Each structure stands twice: as structure tokens, then as C-alpha cells.
Amino acid sequence: MPLESYQIAQYNQQHEVAHRRKFEFLAEELGSETTERILGKLIDFQIAIPSWALGTGGTRFGRFAGGGEPRNLEEKIADVGLLHALNRSSGAISLHIPWDIPTDGEAIKQLAASYGLVFDAMNSNTFQDQPNQELSYKFGSLQHTDAAVRKQAIDHNIDVIRYGEALGSKSLTVWLSDGSSFPGQLNFRKAFQRTLEGLQEIYAALPADWKIFVEYKAFEPNFYSTTVGDWGQSFLYASKLGPKAYTLVDLGHHLPNANIEQIVSLLLMEEKLGGFHFNDSKYGDDDLTAGSIKPYQLFLIFNELVDGMDARGMNHASDLGWMIDASHNVKDPLEDLLQSVEAIKLAYAQALLVDRVALEEARTSNDVAAAQELLQNAFRTDLRPLLAEARLRADAALNPVGLYRELSLRNKLIEARGLKAVATGL
Ligand code: RM4
Ligand code: MN
Ligand code: MN
């Protein structure tokens, strides 16, 4: 690990006086009960890092690598370990198979544990053909007209579950690129039925304490129809599959201007929200840093999450799967991920600040202006000193990106791995 705990302590000491000033001012404003309540929740809240987003991402036009990328799963785990040491909020990693096959599950699990990491949802991949693969997914996987292709895709998902079991993971995320690119290409009902049957076989292979997340996406790589295209379709599959099946919401997978907070609210009401892929976008599946384009939307989503989870007495930290799904074309992937985690936790903290009793009163009396004030007051309160205080108490860095830069950690990674090291993934 290119970062030692004494370096974090030293850095925090240098910045503590400035931090205290800001934190104490805020704590006085909020009152000690609210301050401590939010701090406790922030310390517990962990967001899983995707193993496929530790290297530089690309578009179909090109890829501009930054150097020092993790060359194998062990190095990816080391990178997530580094993030977690810096912020104590990234204590889990989510693996994509076959990009990251854990050949020795026990050893990989132990390595992760040495960094304080656990394994979040496992991700299958039937959207690409692999070099040694017998049949092609060009025309879909679980929806395919050929039963042999469907079986190959089902078997792959079951393999992914087995890898996950060895690592202590408890969930499988299935994202299918299945769909069609031209009108007339696909029989929608038959494609749905075949996909459902495939998912049912995968569901039957789930261990008793596992969940399956059905992730939807409006378009791309198919551009006319998608077989799990929106939350309604995902909800339909999840409902037909049974109690271990849930919908997964990836923020970039909607048509423009979709009201994601309303989707989240209703899925929670129906006990069918399973997890999240955080990112931000201006157009489609842009996979940009969480909170970088629409921070108010992120806050409104968390506002519904907190409200809906509390209505069901759920544990914020453990009852849903919290993951980032992003791609970094122009930024250092590790800095980008630190920024995403910060933005997610900030939105969460702001949602925890909303006065829910007053909000319900405003709604009941149709006081629209008051309802807006309540939400925007929370959103416009600068809670960053609270996040910093949570990190300080958890032995993380007061400013993770600041320390990462001060210690030139990217250069250390380049020295160790080389400038041309390339990670598997997006
Ligand atoms: C998809 C989707 C999946 C992710 C792949 C790499 O667009 O978001 O969750 O695993 O990309
Ligand atoms: Mn996703
Ligand atoms: Mn995506």
C-alpha cells in the first residue's frame, strides 16, 4: 500500500484547526442531536467500487490511458483498498465476470479482507463475446431464438454465482444488452418470455440468502428496443421471479428527464428496489462522476430513498446495494471515484437533514412554497464539514483527493506498474 496510516494522521493534524472552525460553526447551527445522528449514519454508509472502473474508460472513438492502471484483480483490490483508506467509505468491491475472474476465491477474499473490503454484487457479462466462447451474443443472450445460446448465457450466470459464493458476495446483478436495433427484428412477447425463463433458471440457482438484481436500460447497444428497457419491465421480471428478485436502478439508464426519484419511491413502496448504480449524465449512459451534472436530482433521489427506507424500517447502510458504475475518460479514475463517493454521501447527508414532519404538514395543507423551501434549505446547507468530521472519526483523510495529490499517489502507482499498464473493464 503506497499509503501509511501515519501519513493520514499527519495530514489531518495539519488541517485540523481549519476543519474544526467550520465543523463547530455548522454543528452549532444544526444542534448536537442532528449533528451526531447524521455523523453516525455517514460513518456506516459504504459505497461499493466497480472493479471495471479502476482503469481509464473509453468511448467507441478512442481511449486515452493515464498510466499505473491495475493489471490484475489483486491490483484492483489494492486500488479499492487505497480508496477505502483515504475515505473509509468504499469498503466493498463489485466484480465483473469474466473481466475479473477470482481463480483462487479464498486467497482473493483474504486479500480483500486485509484492506477491510468485502464483495458486493457480482456482475455477469453476456453483452460481449469472449475469445474462447462457443456461441455468439450478437442477437442477444437470454432472449436469443436459439436455445443453445440461451443455455450458454444461463450457465455463465450460474458460474458467476459460484464465484461470488466463494468470495462471500450475496447478490448477482444481471444487465442484459438484449433487444433489437430495427423495427420488426424481434417478437417482443417471445423475447420477454424467453428472457423470463432464463432468469427463472438463474434464480433457481441462487443460494438461499442471495438476491438477484435485474438492471434496466433504455437503449444502447440496441437502439430500437431493449428487452429490460425500463423500471416497469424490470419490475415485471422481478415480480414474476419471486421474493429474491429486485430492480436495480442505474442513474444513467433512463430516457431524458425521467423522474427517477418517483421511480425509486414506488419501487421501495413495493419492496422491489434492490440496489443502485450511481453516476451522472447529461444525455444517456454517460457514466460521469456522481453529482457532477445534476446534484439536485441526486439529492431528490436520496430524499425519496431515506423517506422510503424509513417508512419500511430499513437499515440504510445494509438493506440496499449501493454501487458506483462509472467510466472515466479524462480524469484519474481514483480521483473520480473519490469525488463520486463524496457527492453520494453529501446527497445522503442532505436528505437526512430534511425535516420530514414539517414536509408532511406542508404537503397536507397544500403549502407548495413551504415544501420547496424545506427541500431547498436542506440542499443548500453546506454539509461538507460534516462529511469531513465523519472521515476524521473513522481515521480517513480530512480531504481524500487533497491527500492523494499531496502524496503523488498516481505517480507511485505508475512507478510500480508502469505507464502502459492497462486494466480490464469498460
Ligand atoms: C452497462 C450497465 C452495467 C455495467 C456495464 C459495464 O451499461 O450499466 O451495469 O455492468 O455497462
Ligand atoms: Mn450499471
Ligand atoms: Mn450503464
SSE order and pairing:
Blueprint: H1 5-30, H2 32-44, E1 49-50, E2 58-59, E3 62-63, H3 73-87, E4 92-96, H4 105-114, E5 118-123, H5 147-167, E6 171-175, E7 179-180, H6 188-204, E8 211-215, E9 225-226, H7 231-241, E10 245-250, H8 260-269, E11 273-278, H9 295-311, E12 321-324, H10 333-353, H11 356-364, H12 368-379, H13 384-393, H14 400-406, H15 409-417
Parallel strand pairs: 1-4, 4-5, 5-6, 6-8, 8-10, 10-11, 11-12
Antiparallel strand pairs: 2-3, 7-9
Helix pairs in contact: 1-13, 2-10, 2-13, 4-5, 5-6, 8-9, 9-10, 11-12
Bound molecules: beta-L-rhamnopyranose (RM4) and manganese (II) ion (2 copies).
Structure in words:
- It is built from 15 helices and 12 strands.
- With about 425 residues, it is an alpha/beta fold.
- Strands 1-4-5-6-8-10-11-12 form an 8-stranded parallel beta sheet. A two-stranded antiparallel sheet has the order 2-3. A two-stranded antiparallel ribbon has the order 7-9.
- Helix 4 links the parallel strand 4 and strand 5.
- The longest helix is centred in the first third of the chain and has 26 residues.
- The model has no long low-confidence stretch (mean pLDDT about 95).
- The site of one manganese (II) ion (MN) has 5 residues, from loops.
The major sheet is characterized as:
8 strands, parallel
The whole-angstrom Rg is: 22 Å
Question: Which ligands, by name, code or SMILES, are bound?
Answer: beta-L-rhamnopyranose, manganese (II) ion
What structural class do you assign from the helix and strand content? alpha/beta
Identify the overall geometry. globular
Give me the side-by-side strand order of the main sheet. 1-4-5-6-8-10-11-12
